[in-house]
Amino acid sequence: YPEVGDWVVAGQTISEVGQSGGQAQSGSYFEIRDQGAPVDPLLWCRTNVELDRTS
Asked: Is-contact 39 32, C-beta < 8 A?
């Protein structure tokens, strides 16, 4: 998986979702930055992609 500061490319796996991270709900928590400034991840992430539920 990428580490802090790594660049990622389209289609690259950046995380897995489970229930062991100490959060109240399962999810993937991440931040996207453009030239060092945080940006809204919804501007970068597709929302109409079918989820892979084969875990």
From this structure: yes
Tokens representing residue 37 in the block: 């400034």
Q: How far apart are CA 39 and CA 44, in angstroms?
A: 9
**pLDDT tens for residues 33-45?**
888 899 988 887 7
Structure tokens at 21: 């991270």
Across the chain, how many H-helices and E-strands are there?
A: 0, 2
Cβ neighbourhood burial of 32 (10 Å; 0-12, 13-18, 19+): middle
Strand ranges in 1-55 using DSSP code E only, listed in sequence order: 32-34, 37-39
